[in-house]
């Protein structure tokens, strides 16, 4: 069965997942997490990309990155992040070899319908994995910074977040309530399926729009009901 091609669409946010080689741990000590985030901050600025959400799990990374007009920017970002982390850990542990799977996964996101749901999905990963009881308890995701519990001056704020309410405090509260909903959203399965297969996070209308933009046929599917933080 042919491998689904990775699609990058300028002007849209993208959900990205990079897994450790054979799903082995990539982040073990605090230094590992801190080094990756320092490089993410550096290279997102070099390539003029916006990062809306992130979560560093022990054996994989989730990012939500807005693609600019340079379609090579995200591939270069991921290459730099993977390469630096590999050299860093190999030098510390006096080892050699690959740290990551060969190919990261990426899914363009229908901004209005699914961006906040995708950020929620990313930031709830540690909760779903049973590592913490709440998203704010996990140090290595963007959630605590988004709701003002920790500083992260380089985390970007999407328009859909700003549209939640008239002032920042109300936006934070609206987003907090959205993330803390007890049940899975109907969009969660669509997000999971899309990133696992390098497809689009959106319904048929979004698929049609992207097909026209990039001139590549993308397999359609039944749209899930989008979840909104509004």
UniProtKB/TrEMBL annotation:
Q: Which molecular function GO terms apply here?
A: DNA binding; transposase activity
- Matches recorded under Gene3D superfamilies: Transposase IS200-like
- Listed SMART domains: Y1_Tnp
Alphabetized Pfam families for the sequence: Y1_Tnp
Any single biological process term in GO: DNA transposition
| Organism domain of life | Bacteria
Chain ranges of the Transposase IS200-like domain: 9-125
PANTHER family reported in the protein's UniProt record: TRANSPOSASE IS200-LIKE DOMAIN-CONTAINING PROTEIN (PTHR34322:SF2), TRANSPOSASE, Y1_TNP DOMAIN-CONTAINING (PTHR34322)
Name this protein carries in UniProt: Transposase
Q: Which source organism?
A: Marinobacter salinus
The lineage is: Bacteria, Pseudomonadati, Pseudomonadota, Gammaproteobacteria, Pseudomonadales
